[in-house]
Amino acid sequence: MAAMIINGKEVAQQIQDELTVRVTELKDKGVLPRLATLLVGENPASQVYIGQKRKACDRLGIISDHQTLPADITEAKLLSIIDGLNNDPGVSGILVQLPVPEHIDSVKILDAISPQKDVDGFHPFNVGKFFTEKSFSDMIDKGLFLPCTPYGIMELLKRYDIPTKGADVVVVGRSNIVGKPITMLLLAADATVTICHSRTKNLKEVCQRADIVIAAIGKPKFVTADMVKEGVVVIDVGVNRLPEGLVGDVDYENVSQKASAITPVPGGVGPMTITMLMANTIMAAKNQAGI
Ligand code: NDP
User: Fold this and answer.
1) Does residue 10 register a pLDDT over 80?
2) Ligand 1 centroid, distance to 114 Cα (angstroms)
């Protein structure tokens, strides 16, 4: 039986409609959410991502200020630009599009963003906050900045009524932006989570046990139908550019025949990532205004 398609585009639109109302409410109170975006160099994929984020800002009524900086900018200069944005009371959120060129230490850059303006949710202060929180709903109630892609995945699961409590979840990938944080969010939502990586033994057998598989690997069609059980829910985070177009980390055509629900690429996790960035920016503006 073909799987239910988890339509990230549709859910993202629904959330953006809700967020537009919140932006209007804030503006009525004299608060203007503003996102400052920085792109170092001219990486084409990064240009696309920044463009999508700025378009989302426009749709929601969030002001976006963008600076494209030369690829050979010094780390010190970039840090001083971030410092200026940290101290600008008109800026609600700051986003430095990753990756940055190799001569710049991305850890130093992310650490330099004020935790109050860290709308990507990558600052160690904010990471520490959600790592130490026990329940996912408390994270939301307390208004923590959650990293956008994992946050978007949680929203997709919630809005499609996919239970996480007691579910066996296998996350493939242990990056700081996807694999590790989604593991912590799911743990806080009472899932039993196994996190896998390139050194994991018997990956196929581990994945076969999962009620939910989250693929964040960066290898096209890596998760194949023989790796998952019948009825599995599959969340495909991967974005791989092939001559045939964008494909995920999951062999969608075959896995969707076995899964009960699956995200497509494009139109699954991607639109959710951008939407949760908007949510974080609005929350930052609200918090900074003390309302
Ligand atoms: P990283 O390259 O940082 O991490 C990839 C992970 O996959 C690593 O932990 C790596 O293991 C693991 N891995 C690689 N090969 C294997 C293997 N053969 N078996 C098991 N695990 C393996 O990637 P990201 O987390 O940044 O991104 C993952 C994918 O998600 C990419 O395609 C990226 O473009 C996409 N992405 C999409 C977003 C969206 O909004 N849709 C947002 C962010 C990312 P090890 O640690 O051992 O090297």
Assistant:
1) yes
2) 27
